[in-house]
Amino acid sequence: MQHKSNLFVPLIREPLWSTAKERWLTRLCIAFTLFATVASLFDQFGHVSIELSQKDWSGFGCQILFVVIVILLIYGGLVYQITRLKYVERLREPPPSVDKFEFRQEGEVTILVPSYNEERRTIFQTLMSAALQEGVKKRIVLLIDNSPDPYTPDEMALLVVARQTVLDVGEKMRRLHSKLTRMYEASSHLLAADACRALADANDFCGEWFAEEASSLLNSEELDHTDRFYAAEVLVSRTYVHWDRAHQWRIMEGSIDQSNIHSAWSHLLDSFCAEVSSFERKQFVNLSQEPNKAANLNSYLGLLGRAWKEIENHKGQVELQVAADANAPRSFEVSQSEFILTLDADSILLPEYASTLLKEISKAENGRVAVIQTPYSAIPGANTVLERCAGATTDVQYIIHQGFTSWDGTYWVGANAILRKSALDEIAEEFVERGYSMKRFIQDRTVIEDTESTIDLLSRKWQLWNYPKRLAYSATPSDFGSLLIQRRRWANGGLIILPKAISYLLKGSKSRQLRESFFRVHYLVSIATVNLGLILLLAFPFTDAATSFWFPLTAVPYFFLYGRDLRLMEYERNDVLRVYALNLLLILVNLAGVIKSIEQAYSRKKIPFIRTPKVENRTRVRPVFIVLTYLLLIQWCIGAYWDFQNGHPIHGIFAALNALFLCYAIVAFVGVRNSISDILHPSKA
Known about the structure:
The protein is an alpha/beta fold. Helices cover about 60% and strands about 10% of the residues. It has helices at about 20-55, 55-90, 120-130, 155-185, 190-220, 225-250, 260-270, 295-300, 355-360, 385-405, 420-425, 450-460, 480-490, 495-505, 510-540, 550-555, 555-570, 575-585, 585-605, 625-645, 650-670, 670-680, and strands at about 110-115, 135-145, 275-280, 305-310, 320, 330-335, 340-345, 345-350, 370-375, 375-380, 415-420, 430-435, 435-440, 465, 470-475. The strands form four sheets. A seven-stranded mixed beta sheet has the order 3-2-1-7-11-9-14, sandwiched between helices. Strand 12 and strand 13 (about 435-440) form a beta hairpin. It is globular, with a radius of gyration of 27 Å.
């Protein structure tokens, strides 16, 4: 067996941040940013006073707008630095000690995996990572949102693959659990010493099973970094865990009592106890047909705790009705579940995810926690520069979200989370769609359903919590076309949710309002303010005051810490510059999402959820984005030349540098040939 460290790059080592050096560096950066900000504003006060005394109203207006834009940019930098400090401080808390022979059962969980036109490998690895959660009984449901009546052979193939993958994973887990059950029953009458040897044999068997699964995958001809990650962290890691346990049980023969042996067997059997099934809401006319992930989840959540029968209405359509009579015929029954684990179909959980988070949310002091999660990280070892840089932004967001928790600013991040069903019941609302009465647990007004549902939960005094450990990983788009779709979706909805968030924040206690608002409002408006602010700053010099010595210095601490965090996460030294270039390339993409939000707020029509494509070939980019990006590059270049010719050298340097970064981004992340091809041969989609 090849050791997992040889399979791909190691995981991020979070203890690297838990040092006094990182705490003091962050504090110094925050202090310097505040000092530079105050010095900048004092410097601007003199310019504003002169313009007012001269009644230069256009100059005064430009000055104020310039200051507002820069303050908003500084605001974003401070949020990052403050959340980083809190992230570092959270890591100082010592992890709980774990007895090698303490095997806790953390109960049961229903795992819902919404899926739409996914390939087999994606579904298989996600379902397997869910099914192999240690010490937890699982009911796993793949919520297949593919059309039940496909129009094309490709769509039919994906539907068949999704259904078959569920059967394959279910059968694999059933055979494994049955084998372990027989081994347990055969050892149930043995004395302690023999029972220890039997338990060691069972762990050896599990280790061999994991080793065979890993070898089968690693012997495949085509492997990418996702395959290697799954093999290393889900399969190979458990191989050595079970072999080590087998060794320990043999050492401890006769010195362990029967209660410990029984607990170990229960833990082992629960680890491989997984009921795997699928559900297709689009087969039933009286369930929501809205094309988004929230509606897919809501349709199944509404079935929990009841038996159901399928009937055919007068139009020949299939409906679901409650089978109220215990003796009446029923098509299927859906068990009630106290905890729901939602998991995107392109995500992979580490084996201890469910047990760790269930143990935490089940504590008495966490009785009002509705959502517990560990914000996902990017799957490491990306093969392309674009995927690596996009993944870097995801890994940095993890730090920010962990810091949010220390300031009561946690947002639900929908890729993975454990939800308390009673909390969802409390925010559920009835609605009517196509004449059928339904229930909405998770908001689907916007395509960032998790963000709006966060505000709903907070308004009813529920809490959200980020567990301070990286336990979940998700795929990152490997080409710019896919990334464009993902980031445009992320940028859509924040402004729509803002009024609801402000209404909630105004009802809070005065001591908490300012602190919580500082982070929650930024999360909702930052995409709009930062991207629009950069566009305006680069468009033309607002005023000669843009040459202020202090304003550029306010950004230095932010970029220093950002670059330092990337290095601590073992990204390349120059990746901070590449990430900046990527963010420039995404300005128009983000603004497109913001404009969609404004359009939706005006029209009051929902925006369809557009999934992020996961294809081997490149996803084409809409020509409008390519053309506008080139026009933006040309405008910055011309603007830089104009600045140098008209006495604005500082702004000219600023525009020229950003034009250089944008040019690099076009070449490195899109490709000149690809961009020309996308313009000349646009996608029909």
